[in-house]
Amino acid sequence: MSNIKSFIATHKIEEVLHFSTNHGLVGMASLNAIISRDQIKDMDPNSPLYALNAKNAKFRSDPEWIEYVNLSISRINSSFFRFSRTWKRAPYDYWIILSFKPEILEHQNVVFSTTNNIYHRSCIRKQGIDGLKNCFADSVISKNNTRITRTKDLPLNWTTCPEAEVLYYKTLSLDYLNCIYVEDNDTYDQVVTTLFALTDKTDFNVIINQDKFKGL
């Protein structure tokens, strides 16, 4: 058993999460993968997927890391999710959370960031087991040099800082998908219909769980 696999087991890590929109869902289902933003520029500008990806993520304030897909362990970055909700969207747009198997943490070129990757003066980035352990340290430095201390009641599978990130290089296949979380019945129906239309598959596990969207 690898060091990372052992850490996953002892800390009861069951999922790695990525939130997105209906636009992102169409792109991901069409490609059977999440792709990093730098790959979008290589797409045909006339392709529907090019337009969908542009709508899905308005900008990134960490441009030197656009070769990576941003994820989090066990819970989403709820503060960034709340901010993302303020972006102007069409009335019919909705949000989803993709849950991936924790084994992706063992993959090559994965980088662990102790806090939000845009906090360049605070975050510590590292690959391998040491990088993963850093995210669960007794204390970490976050935004504005604020120290976050790990409390006794913090779930074992939660990172010390709620903004800690997993940076996955280039392309993350949906073959590692556990499930997709949605907020309500209407979104459930739309997601199931979209997935079937694009993949002809009916075995996607779509779960209604509002708590996941609160970072719980």
Automatic annotation (TrEMBL):
Pfam families: DarT. The keyword Transferase applies. InterPro entries: DarT (IPR029494). Residues 14-214 form the DarT domain. It comes from the Bacteria. GO terms for molecular function: DNA binding; glycosyltransferase activity; nucleotidyltransferase activity. Keywords: DNA-binding, Glycosyltransferase, Nucleotidyltransferase, Toxin-antitoxin system, Transferase. Belongs to the DarT ADP-ribosyltransferase family. This is DarT domain-containing protein. It comes from Photobacterium carnosum.
